[in-house]
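Weekly sync, protein design subgroup
Attendees: M.S., D.O., the rotation student, P.L. (late)

Item 1: inverse folding check
M.S. brought a backbone from last month's batch and wanted to see whether the design step gives back something sensible before we order anything. D.O. pointed out we never logged the input encoding, so this time it goes straight into the notes. Structure tokens as presented (260 positions):
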């Protein structure tokens, strides 16, 4: 379905971003991945994406907390892959702490990576999409873009902001072939969530299994994690012709979290 299309997925060396990159490659898209990790492992991922898609795959180590690097990555993708048809803003980090103790530098970093980087990549990618008359912008927000939880002030503020940015870009492109939407996962078992499970287990002297069950029971009525593969499937759907009139939406994938 995506043969001949190119995609940039930020923060795609693990977790949800990797799930999305694989799903797009499986549909034939040429993908540029980004994020931190071991050079050898990243090269193995890049090669596996080429095998999946039968098209070139690339990697850029741009740091999404740095505006210049975020914009430069889009230009690098245009040079290396020829164009950017699909932009998935996925890079994200978390810090959990009551606001009085929340370090100011962590606030700045979370806002930079989880929100501002999307402004910079969208701003750089839109002119090319407009010139070609087609584009898909997917912002990986969160249930925390729709509702809050304690001790996540920066994350919740950034994700609410990302949903606002999504709606604005969708309106600015409403009469074009470019759509902009947000995906709002609940708990997905990735390294980002594993850290929170480990912290809960050690803080409350629980086993890992008990900590997982507690996290799910508190928020996710399905009592089950969503998977990176499922988020990848939704990204593919949003890139399809069937999704042409889905604009400025926030699609929840949260086992019922926000239905409560
Ligand atoms: P993860 O920690 O597994 O992956 C994060 C990715 O971002 C990695 O590839 C990492 O290298 C990269 N990254 C981190 N900082 C970066 C930076 N400064 N520049 C470039 N890349 C950077 O996390 P995940 O759980 O897969 O989360 C991915 C996105 O999904 C995030 O935006 C997160 O907020 C969102 N999300 C996750 C969940 C969940 O339950 N896991 C739920 C809702 C939303």
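Designed sequence read out in the meeting:
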């Amino acid at each position: 379905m995506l043969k001949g299309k190119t995609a940039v997925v930020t923060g795609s060396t693990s977790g949800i971003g990797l799930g999305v990159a694989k799903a797009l490659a499986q549909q034939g898209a040429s993908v540029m991945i980004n994020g931190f990790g071991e050079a050898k492992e990243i090269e193995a991922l890049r090669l596996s994406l080429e095998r999946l898609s039968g098209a070139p795959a690339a990697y850029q180590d741009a740091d999404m907390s740095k505006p210049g690097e975020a914009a430069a990555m889009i230009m690098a993708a245009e040079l290396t892959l020829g164009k950017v048809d699909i932009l998935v803003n996925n890079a994200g980090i978390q810090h959990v702490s009551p606001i009085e103790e929340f370090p100011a530098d962590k606030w700045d970093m979370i806002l930079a990576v989880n929100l501002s980087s999307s402004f910079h990549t969208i701003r750089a990618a839109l002119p090319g999409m407009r010139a070609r008359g087609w584009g898909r912008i997917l912002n990986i927000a969160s249930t925390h873009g729709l509702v809050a939880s304690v001790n996540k002030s920066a994350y919740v503020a950034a994700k609410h902001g990302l949903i606002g940015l999504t709606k604005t870009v969708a309106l600015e492109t409403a009469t074009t072939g470019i759509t902009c939407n947000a995906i709002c996962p609940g708990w997905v078992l990735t390294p980002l969530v594993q850290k929170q499970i480990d912290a809960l287990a050690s803080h409350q002297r629980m086993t890992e299994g008990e900590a997982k069950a507690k996290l799910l029971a508190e928020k996710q009525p399905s009592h089950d994690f969503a998977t990176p593969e499922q988020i990848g499937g939704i990204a593919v759907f949003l890139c399809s012709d069937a999704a042409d009139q889905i604009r400025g939406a926030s699609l929840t994938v949260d086992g019922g979290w926000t239905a409560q």
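Discussion: The helical segments are 15-26, 39-53, 67-81, 104-132, 153-172, 191-203, 208-219, 228-238. Residues 11-17, 34-37, 63-65, 90-93, 113-114, 140, 142, 185, 187-188, 190-193 surround nicotinamide-adenine-dinucleotide (CB under 6 Å).
Action: P.L. to compare against the previous round before Friday.
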